[in-house]
Amino acid sequence: MGWKKDVKLLSGRVHKVIVQCKTERDRANHWSVSEMNNMHIETPENFSDAGKNFDDDGRIKRTGTWVTASAHIITAVIGSGVLSLAWAIAQMGWVAGPAVLFAFSCITYFTSTLLADCYRSPDSVHGKRNYTYSEVVKSNLGGRKFQLCGLAQYMNLVGVTVGYTITASISMVAVKRSNCFHKHGHQDKCYISNTPFMIIFACIQIGLSQIPNFHKLSWLSIVAAVMSFAYSSIGLGLSLAKVVGGSHGRTSLTGVQVGVDVTASEKVWRMFRAIGDIAFAYAFSNVLIEIQDTLKSSPPENKAMKRASLIGIMTTTLFYVLCGCLGYAAFGNDAPGNFLTGFGFYEPFWLIDFANVCIAVHLVGAYQVFVQPIFGFVERCSKERWPESNFINGEHALNVPLCGSYNLNLFRVVWRSSYVIITAVIAMLLPFFNDFLSLIGALSFWPLTVYFPIEMYIKRSKMQKFSFTWTWLKILNWVCLIISIISATGSIQGLASDLKKYKPFQAQQ
């Protein structure tokens, strides 16, 4: 009877390998016919070799670590938001400004740890993988909440890609304006249109958007993370030099002063928008699951992701506090909305140029971090809807010089290029830096960073209603909702004001 048990075990392992290969072929078109034919399955040794190439879900083995995940997070978090923090703190002052920064930091880290445990369900270590934020919500909450999550997530991702197009073009324009000011003097207006630079940025993104998925983006995220450190450090150094040099601005405990800098209503609206700017600066929860899906399974993904989140958020908070507070100390209540492109600094012009080039390069990578979930979602839905379409599913092998073989998919080329072009056109119509970022942050912070992680944690832990933990989690939830509504209101008011003053062919400062 022992041989029957061995045969049964062997057939089971054969079936497992076949299913793994078929799944991977269907999902990623990775295996060619010749490769399938060359895969030997007669001996136990070959089963272990095949298992080394796949994870438990049949996909190619993930190789990401907490280091690469930290790089993805830093790339996503330290972005254009850091440039507006000096202005945000100027609206709230020395007391409320840093306090709000630390509060958002703590809330974001807390909810990211809750979200990291939801990557697998029902068990956070051995359960079924969920590949996107929406799938996590569907597995844990289901129904209408899944639909609302998808709507909130993808609207936010679209908004971020539009915002990054705006910011990158402003930084490119700032390089030319910096050279113009150096040549003609600071009194020259040096008006330059953003539109050609948005087109340049879009052309770069059309090329990079052909990178198939997140797993191929590690190198770009590392480059972008280095760039973010570079321009943040330059802004930090220039602010410090200005403070040490004695030419710092007028500051106060409560920020801009009513009757001196602004009216009472302007003070309120600006504070609302400042909260939205800070919320945007911590907006990365909507790509956390996609980042976690790049991690290898040992150590458990949730532990590695919590470590990466801690390192990423601690690093970015340190930079945010330093850049925001030193920027406020340098410029005072007159802090510009973007302290590198708003020309709080003019000299040394070459260093300003380098910092803005770093911003543009960073946003090239950050755009891809946020746009890949959109690409993946549309392409998965299209393949499920039209499984027989060669246009959507067909892969054509190309040999790219210096890069090796590349699988070209015609649908991917057309769809992704169209998306980049559409976001660039929207950016041309709404080239307002601070208010646009504030609106994105206000709309996305509560549902994606707070509400869904907390609701999933409550359900997974089967928490009793009106218990102490349940009560304070609900209070946190409602407080963050009120904050988001307030900051969104301020952002809409700011956008309406900007539209009245908009001059379409002049540089946005």
From TrEMBL:
<dbReference type="Pfam" id="PF01490">
    <property type="entry name" value="Aa_trans"/>
</dbReference>
<comment type="similarity">
    <text>Belongs to the amino acid/polyamine transporter 2 family. Amino acid/auxin permease (AAAP) (TC 2.A.18.2) subfamily.</text>
</comment>
<dbReference type="InterPro" id="IPR013057">
    <property type="entry name" value="AA_transpt_TM"/>
</dbReference>
<dbReference type="GO" id="GO:0005886">
    <property type="term" value="C:plasma membrane"/>
</dbReference>
<keyword id="KW-1133">Transmembrane helix</keyword>
<comment type="similarity">
    <text>Belongs to the amino acid/polyamine transporter 2 family. Amino acid/auxin permease (AAAP) (TC 2.A.18.1) subfamily.</text>
</comment>
<keyword id="KW-0813">Transport</keyword>
<keyword id="KW-1003">Cell membrane</keyword>
<feature type="transmembrane region" description="Helical">
    <location>
        <begin position="413"/>
        <end position="430"/>
    </location>
</feature>
<feature type="transmembrane region" description="Helical">
    <location>
        <begin position="220"/>
        <end position="241"/>
    </location>
</feature>
<comment type="function">
    <text>Carrier protein involved in proton-driven auxin influx. Mediates the formation of auxin gradient from developing leaves (site of auxin biosynthesis) to tips by contributing to the loading of auxin in vascular tissues and facilitating acropetal (base to tip) auxin transport within inner tissues of the root apex, and basipetal (tip to base) auxin transport within outer tissues of the root apex. May be involved in lateral roots and nodules formation.</text>
</comment>
<feature type="transmembrane region" description="Helical">
    <location>
        <begin position="475"/>
        <end position="496"/>
    </location>
</feature>
<dbReference type="GO" id="GO:0006865">
    <property type="term" value="P:amino acid transport"/>
</dbReference>
<keyword id="KW-0927">Auxin signaling pathway</keyword>
<feature type="transmembrane region" description="Helical">
    <location>
        <begin position="310"/>
        <end position="329"/>
    </location>
</feature>
<feature type="transmembrane region" description="Helical">
    <location>
        <begin position="191"/>
        <end position="208"/>
    </location>
</feature>
<feature type="transmembrane region" description="Helical">
    <location>
        <begin position="96"/>
        <end position="119"/>
    </location>
</feature>
<protein>
    <recommendedName>
        <fullName>Amino acid transporter transmembrane domain-containing protein</fullName>
    </recommendedName>
</protein>
<keyword id="KW-0029">Amino-acid transport</keyword>
<feature type="domain" description="Amino acid transporter transmembrane">
    <location>
        <begin position="62"/>
        <end position="495"/>
    </location>
</feature>
<dbReference type="GO" id="GO:0009734">
    <property type="term" value="P:auxin-activated signaling pathway"/>
</dbReference>
<feature type="transmembrane region" description="Helical">
    <location>
        <begin position="69"/>
        <end position="90"/>
    </location>
</feature>
<feature type="transmembrane region" description="Helical">
    <location>
        <begin position="349"/>
        <end position="370"/>
    </location>
</feature>
<dbReference type="GO" id="GO:0012505">
    <property type="term" value="C:endomembrane system"/>
</dbReference>
<dbReference type="GO" id="GO:0015293">
    <property type="term" value="F:symporter activity"/>
</dbReference>
<feature type="transmembrane region" description="Helical">
    <location>
        <begin position="436"/>
        <end position="454"/>
    </location>
</feature>
<keyword id="KW-0812">Transmembrane</keyword>
<keyword id="KW-0472">Membrane</keyword>
<keyword id="KW-0769">Symport</keyword>
<feature type="transmembrane region" description="Helical">
    <location>
        <begin position="154"/>
        <end position="175"/>
    </location>
</feature>
